[in-house]
Amino acid sequence: MKTVWKPFWSYDVKKTEKWLQAKALQGERLVEIKPLYRLFLFEASNQPQAIHYHIAYHKQQNHKLPLLLQQSGWGECCQRGRWYIFTNQQKTKDIHNYPVRREIIKRNRNIFYFFTALTMYVLLTLLLFVIMSGIIVFHHGNTLTFSPVFVWHTLLVISIGLAIIGIFSTIRLYQSNKHFW
């Protein structure tokens, strides 16, 4: 059993599906996903397979694959929480019906809005701090002194980390989902 950690896999599901297809061609079969921990569990198989993967997200946790998709060759590979991964072993030209991505698009849009707001908040807070520090130093002629309390260093590291994650997530979500919006 091989475990792979992919922290931002849900931001670009098409890229993740291509990665899963490449893994199947290398002889590794997807057995389970753990979305909370961002883990994919693979099992080594005897022979490589050409499998088409489709990732879906549904708010209902007991979602069943529609009959039309089952007749088109789609089957459930694994499911955890609201995440479903479907497989189809037919050739690409023979697949005419695909599961809908509407819920994943809506989810990614909401996450995009959250990270955009978080990034703006952190950056505006930082800008306010820089402006106030500049006014104190340059206008009043005083110097800034920071107490060596560990809390300030921790808050600085947390805010820089949030800014980096927020900027990265905002850019990544926008680039991978802009054709849906």
UniProtKB/TrEMBL annotation:
Query: Which InterPro entries does UniProt cross-reference here?
Result: DUF2812
Instruction: Name one matching Pfam family.
Output: DUF2812
Species this protein is from: Virgibacillus chiguensis
Q: Which domain of life is it from?
A: Bacteria
Which parts of the chain span the membrane according to its record?
111-138, 150-174
User: Which keywords has UniProt assigned to this entry?
Assistant: Membrane, Transmembrane, Transmembrane helix
**Protein name as it appears in the record:** DUF2812 domain-containing protein
